[in-house]
Amino acid sequence: MNTDSVATSMDASLPKQINSSRTWLLARASEAMFAQVIRRTVRFIFLFLAARKLGPASFGIYALLLAMLETLSLMTGEGLADYVARELSKAPGLAKELYKRVTLLRCLLALPLAPIAIMLLGFLKYPNEILRDAAWLFLILIARGPLASSQGLFRAAHRMSLMIWIEVMQGCALLGLGYYFFFAGGANLHSVIAAEVGAAFMGALAALILAPQFWQNTSAIHVSWRTVWKATATFNIFPLITNIYDRVDVIILSVIAGNAAAGLYALPYRALATLQIIPFGLMAAILPVLASRSSSKDDKQICWRLATILCVLSMFAALTLTLLAKPLVLLVLGDNYADSIPILRLLVWASIPMFINYGLNTFLLARNRERAFLWTSSICAVANVALNLILIPRFSYYAAAGVTIVTELLLLLQNLVIIRRTFDFIALPRRLLATALILLLLMGAALTGGAYAPPVIVAATACFAFAFYLYLDGSLKTIIDAVMPGT
């Protein structure tokens, strides 16, 4: 999608100098988005290869360790990349001192937190072999120190292209090492972790080589440890809470329902996470445009357009993956993951409220309402953990998928209430109920017709019928006008 045209269609009245600045910002945002696309696509491919080679049980252990790694990464200061970017944008002379402080801090935090996580696995009666695998995987926490600091440095210097090159380097290393271990050295959990660690440290080495070129030839400006410690708390609370309800289901599944259940659930959930590239890319480009404008009477129209575009895109994704789940899972993963088919069909429906939440969160962030995220994410985290603990013992991975949908709906409800109270309008797409009803009718007809025609033909027909309805409804015109204004 042409995000520059999206922004232009939203605000054609801006002065030329603002439009020029906006184009520059969108170019930088597009580079940042492309880096994420590379990262998530590579990881998606690697995880599919690992899942197919390891099998559900071993892959479930791998998914558990990855979930713990991401949680530890946030606890050690993953959010400090934003802090580095903000501070160096205001004072580039801090680059060398701040880079070293933040990188060292993350390493220091990893030293006690990683052993604590390993002891927790031991308390849960995981065998010593898995504890050793966890110790090797958690070495990635050391590599992420310079990686995160460099990302903040590159963003402050407006050199997002360097982020792309680092992601390309890490991706090539991950897939290259993965291919060697999977097809030449024999695939097992040890080899998967070796590929992960090797790729992470290669990326860290590249970051350490590239970072010094942005250090100015001035005497180092002192940055107090107290300032950095304070920033660690401020910039990590919200993403840490979000990560809890985003990944805790895999951990609970592994502990309660077993590693195989976690493995069967992890791949469909990763597919859902990969779909987030779509709203992430759009919102990364649109955020600076919205932030450059003050609140106005056009906010209602802008928010409605965002919600409509993201809702329609998510409905197409849900329709397509539901109808193609069986052939995709069997083709890519094999018969061992047949139980992942209904999980994917259920879980993909969380993309609809998830996509809309991306748009509404972006709108609130542009209007300086980010403090609300702490409360909304906390409520979602409590609800998610509680429901998973109650339902997973009885319904296993189906409960985890259902709870994910409920959590996204809860977040959507909170966002709608906040926008209604603050800006006095309801930020839902128009004719949402009618569109949802048509989607469900098409879904039912397509699933019935699937017994008489190939899934690809059925999915293509259903998507065409849905697109035709959206054309008559006017929602499709909203997207077309956003992409190609004036057509």
Question: Can you describe what's shown?
Answer:
82% of the residues lie in helices and 0% in strands. With 487 residues, the protein is mainly alpha-helical. The protein is globular.
Mean pLDDT rating: 81
Name the helicity range: over 70%
Secondary-structure class: mainly alpha
**Number of H/I helices:** 19
What percent of residues are in strands? Answer: under 5%
Q: Profile the largest sheet.
A: none
Anisotropy-based shape: globular
Distance between the termini: 15 Å
- What is the element string, with H for helices and E for strands? HHHHHHHHHHHHHHHHHHH
| Uncertain runs | 1-20, 483-487
Based on CA atoms alone, the radius of gyration comes out at: 23 Å
Query: Quaternary status of these chains?
Result: single chain
* Overall number of strands: 0
Summarize the structure.
By secondary structure, the chain is an all-alpha fold.
Distinctive features:
487 residues, mainly alpha, 0% strand, disordered N terminus
Any chance you could write out the topology, listing elements then pairs?
Elements lengths: L2 H8 L5 H39 L1 H20 L4 H11 L4 H29 L4 H10 L2 H17 L3 H24 L5 H22 L14 H32 L2 H17 L1 H15 L7 H34 L7 H8 L3 H16 L4 H53 L8 H18 L5 H19 L1 H9 L4
